[in-house]
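Let's sit down with a protein and look at its sequence and fold side by side. Which protein we use is up to you, so please pick one and set it down. Label the sequence line and the structure token line clearly, so we can match residues to local backbone shapes. Go ahead whenever you are ready, and we will take it from there:

***
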Amino acid sequence: MKRADLLSKLADAIASRSLVRISRKVEPGVADGYIVNTSEHWLLLLLVGDAISYAGFQAFRLQDVASLEVPSPRAAFYETVLRKRGLRRPVPPKLGLSSSEELIRSAGERFPLVTIHREKADPGVCHIGRVVRVSPASVSLLEVDLDAAWDEDPTAYRLAQVTRVDFGGPYEEALTLVAVTANPSVKGTSRRRAAPYVER
């Protein structure tokens, strides 16, 4: 998709508050939802999930967008269901989208758990955790596993490899209920020994 066409469609979607459908080059399938904000490099989507309810936020790199349908072919049906269920559109978080560093830092400040995807470097794998630190080159996560057990050490990932960032979704919220306290401590929360702090 040409960048100029994408930017024009994104602007139209925001102005019209349309429910859109996005497909991406790095992942099969589509995502339906509302465009919350955009920048030169990223877009932020309020996801409408398969259960036809609001399912958190996903940030996608613009360079990975293959197509954008405004409105989504399921827009009329989805919006009717959302309305009949009495679901109000969540207030979107105020995040910095100017760079990957700013996106992940601001998401980590507002959400206890953040999920990053590196779909080209490691397809089908995601990393969920608390953002410990971010630099222009990398992000360090204190990760939590499927049993809500914390790793003992943060792991760093290169920002250039991050293609998608999720937060505020049902799965992050479920892990938060079990794993996160106001100040999760590395010591005493892990049930397994994690690999040493490494750059991936």
Notes: The chain has two domains: 1-92, 96-200. Residues 3-16 form the longest helix (14 residues). Residues 7 and 38 are 9 Å apart (CA to CA). The beta strands are 19-24, 27-38, 42-48, 54-61, 65-69, 114-117, 126-134, 138-143, 155-158, 164-167.
